[in-house]
Structures are given as C-alpha cells and as structure tokens.
Amino acid sequence: MVTVTANDVRVLARSRDVDPVLAVVGDEVVVLPKADLKEGDVALCSQQKLVSELGDEITDIEAQLFAGRLTNLVTE
Fold first, then answer.
1. Domain limits, the chain
2. Looking at residues 32-56, what average pLDDT do you find?
3. Which residues contact 2 (CB under 8 A, 6 or more apart)?
4. Burial zone of 20 (CB within 10 Å; 0-12 exposed, 13-18 middle, 19+ buried)
5. pLDDT tens digit string along 11-33?
6. Cα-based distances in Å from 70 to 15, 54, 73
7. What is the mean pLDDT of residues 44-59?
8. Nearest partner of 74 among 25, 33, 39, 31, judged by Cα
9. For residue 7, is pLDDT > 80?
10. SS3 7
11. In terms of C-beta density within 10 A (0-12 exposed, 13-18 middle, 19 or more buried), how is residue 54 classed?
C-alpha cells in the first residue's frame, strides 16, 4: 500500500523542478518534473494545484490533511 506523507507534500511545495508533480513510481511516492513521468507512473498532484488549494505557506496540519486526501486517492 502506498502512503503519501506530510513530508512528501512539503517536498512538492518546495521543489525547484520545472513543473513538479507528486507521483507514484513503482511502489514509491516521489517528486519529479512532469516531463519525467513514464508509462505506468501515476501523477497525484502538481505543485501548481497544491499552491492553488493551500497557498504558498503550508502548515503541518494542512500538509497532513492533504497527504491523507492523496493517500485516499491512491487506495481507491
């Protein structure tokens, strides 16, 4: 089972990659540029969507709640 953590959300928020996304690659949750996604990888959220939903400053509670939402998406 794949679990998105609050730390994963914070890494996405701080990423300096071009068009970064939080994705499931194999059995791991990683942040990488959208252009680097391969067939079979699952993009969960882009940095742009994260910022539009939570703003530029993300609290620990917001990161935990958002991670829970993303984990639910993966497990459904």
1. 6-71
2. 96
3. 24, 27, 28, 29, 71, 74, 75
4. buried
5. 999 999 999 999 999 999 999 99
6. 18, 14, 5
7. 95
8. 25
9. yes
10. helix
11. middle
